[in-house]
Amino acid sequence: MYSNKLYTPLRYPGGKARFAPFIAETMNASGLHGGHYLEPYAGGAGVALELLFHGHASHVHINDLDPALNAFWVCVTRHPEELLRLLRDTPTTIEQWLRWRDVLREAAPATLVERGFATLFMNRTNRSGILKGGVIGGLDQSGPYKLDARLDKTTLSARIERIAQRADDITVYCEDAHGLLSRCHEFLPKSSLVYLDPPYYVKGRGLYRNFYKHEDHLAIAKLLQSRRFKRPWVVSYDNADEICEMYSMSEGMSYSLHYTAQKRYLGSEVMFFSRDLSIAEELIPKPKLAA
Length: 291
Hints:
With 291 residues, the chain is an alpha/beta fold. It contains eleven helices and seven strands.
């Protein structure tokens, strides 16, 4: 049974935590239950954490090229007490928001833990969790919601503590996804699944600090569909004609989800997967349409 409980401390544009039941059942049906799991574009790592906490994966590998996100995950798994202390002692004010924005932008000197905390603070106080977005409520705090609307310190502390307890089962990377995928056979056992949720093809530039050009998306597609890539994989994307063409050699399906980045809208997405997987199509989350 799955609940709506979230395990990640981060809000993330296009976060795929609702995909955890689908990924879990796909692993089970494909004989990968209890194996390793890799997310080359981890972001908030919502799927990875749920798979780990529910026992579907015994070890998760989370990678993000964004140094701010990497600093956060390194702090959660290696320096949780220092991170928790900063969370507890830092006031939630515009003055602090300006300070941590400078740290995030690398415009102010900071330790690793301070950089990790800056990621958490900005993620929870910015609109839709977008690190390069604006503060909730605006700088004058005249909006209906204030900058502390998504920063519940008690809840976030509990999530960080729980992740820290499983730190030995989490490996964190800060690598280019293509390079990591090219060598993942070196550290992933055969009983593993790779789930990729790359930056959106169409809107990635507006949502992420790291986004892809057409050639970057194409290089990943070619690698996954090549004979030299030996691990089962699933990739999800926004439904763009260019993406469908790139993955025309693979099985795929389309679906829709609700998004809340900036505004609510119904987005169309596509999923492609390696032929050695048994796909649990019925478990792909469905949007709740307004009456």
